[in-house]
Fold:
Amino acid sequence: MSKQNYELVLIFTPATVQDGTLEQVISHYKNWLTTHGAEIIEEDLWGLRQLAYPIGKNTTGAYLILEFTIDPTQIRPMEVQFRRDERVMRFITVKLDKYGVEYNERRRAGLVGKNRRTSPIVSRAETVGKEPYVKPTKPALATTDSTDIVATVEDADLLTLPETLEDELPIADATSDLLFNPENEN
Amino acid sequence: MAMETNREVRFLTAPKIGVKTKKYCRFKKLNIKHIDYKDADFLLKFLNEQGKILPRRLTGNSLKFQRRIAQAVKRARYVALIPYVTDLLK
Structure:
């Protein structure tokens, strides 16, 4: 069986950060993966982050995202390990199709996606209406190729403002509230 | 009676009657092939204030991408990037 592309999100308990064992745990699992024939493509440690809801009395968790190729038969033993490990609060393994692999490559190149937010998604009310919406200039659009997911769209019915994806806007975080929001219509 | 009072209603800006804008699937239009469940900010566009997934009749998504949005939102909820239930999400 040939190898497949997988993406793994692990959430470790905040206790691992406090006693400094996080690095050790991560290297343990990375070693396990490489010894079982995995090729790690990307390792992204988000670090301690606010959870959207408490998991087992913890309100924060340390996120680790791994992208790797591995033989599909190794996934089950890998997940068994996570279930037995108290330091792992949550895990999710997602098989990536060709578009997912392409997306991650483009994200690494900085073409799509955005820098993750450091603050939790709890309330966005305080950011609404602080900065005026800046319409992206036309030349910026012309430089991007047509297959790129960045584009400006206007739709009087659904969109109150032109929908612009993150890469176009240097202040995307502040303006994202002003983007597509069908709730405003009602 | 009800008819009479309705006639009294005046709008500051004239409502657009008969002007229909066709909805479209943004994923098809912008050629997006993959939806990242880790990008919570992007997924927020498809949620209402309670964190519920908006229906297709509001977002205009094609069935294919509505399914993928739903899948991505559910994954994002599982990894605690988006709450399952909340108020004032936006």
Q: What stands out?
A: Residues 116-130, 148-159 of chain A have pLDDT under 50 and may be disordered.
